[in-house]
Design goal:
Glutathione S-transferase, Glutathione S-transferase Yfyf (Class Pi), Chain A, domain 2, Thioredoxin-like_sf, about 200 residues, Glutathione_S-Trfase, Glutathione_S-Trfase_N, globular
Length: about 200
Amino acid sequence: MTITLHSLQYSRAVRIAWLMEELSVPYKIVRYERTESYQAPPGLRQIHPLGKAPVIVDGDLVLGESAAILRHVQRRHGDGRFVPEGDRDAWARHDEWLDYVEGTLMRPISAAFWARRNDSEIDAKSQGQIDLHMGYLKGHLAKRDFLLGDELTLADMQMLYALAMARYAGVLGDGAAADYLDRLLARPAVERAIKATGPIMPDG
């Protein structure tokens, strides 16, 4: 059965397309353009009451939230790929990274994103949080190819959009986190996902 991915322009839907490309899961894209105020169009509320993307339709299941979708697709189609091997602690560390992206990291990065969009300054509190998290990521990634070591996981797929937004906002900087983002972007499955969903961030 083909999964339908409802994809908003410049959205987190690239994460889901990336996983499905890696797994060769059949899917089709329904794309939506953002409004002039950078919001989702009203039509998305016909698919999910919150009117946000990504949303998938998999048979009778309509599912939002990137992390939930990634977990669902992996469980149904992944056959153990892109989740950690090992003991329960490895799973716990993976879930920490997977949930960290939207639960903690995205708030200061979003503040930086909107500062750039509005041609304004980042507030001091958000800047402090950005410095904290960028330092944390750079330190963690200094000796690793991926968040959990040598193997790609769902957590890396979740991180892609956040770091692309950080680069757009001008707060990613150089070093290990930037190199990590470049490694992710160079993967053929990511290139195919971006072709399917459109650019991750605006040009200007």
